[in-house]
Fold this sequence. Notes:
82% of the residues lie in helices and 0% in strands. It is mainly alpha-helical.
Amino acid sequence: MGWIDTELVLVALAAALSPTTLTFSVLTLVLGDRPLRxxxxxxxxALTATVGIGIVAAFxxxxxxxxxxxxxxxxxxxxxxxxxxxxxxxxVIRWLRQPANTAQTDAAVAQISxxxxxRAVAIIGAGAALANPGMFIPIALKTISELDPSKxxxxxxxxxxxxxxxxxxxxxxxxxxxxxxxxxxxxxRVRAWLERNVRCVAAVIVIGLAASLLRTGIAGLTS
Length: 223
């Protein structure tokens, strides 16, 4: 596995552990009276929106970020890596310095409470808006392009990223399908754990991603 593949795994892992995605996904499953149905529509919305972005990028961006020497990225890619690294590091530092905001949690609960009582189309729309990989999408688009893929290869790699970024939600849905009562109890405990620990767990992964981006960006500018 090369450094670009490692970076893609880090981006996908950071997206999967994004506090926003995790929080909204868990709330969707624990606040609705039909969690499996609601969770499926929520997942479908998130997956469809994310995959759609990748399909467009396969034709618009393609392999333009690929370098003739993979160990040394193009100059504009290296600059972009450094910008991405500094932005997400600044975001993490600001985020960790702020105390937990119960008002934001209450607002998320209120928002999802409205969503889970809506029709399927509204739940799909909420999934597309609330459970997509967010700020990790541009990084993933750039990283896959660096792999010098064909259009079909780009779509396959993006599908991996999309599925991996939604892995916590898909695993929860599988658990609800196999053992619904036990899964619901576990999800309630996960919700409480997320409120206490998700910030630190996500920060470690995101800092690792930022370090990888910074390293490759500097290497590209100094080589």
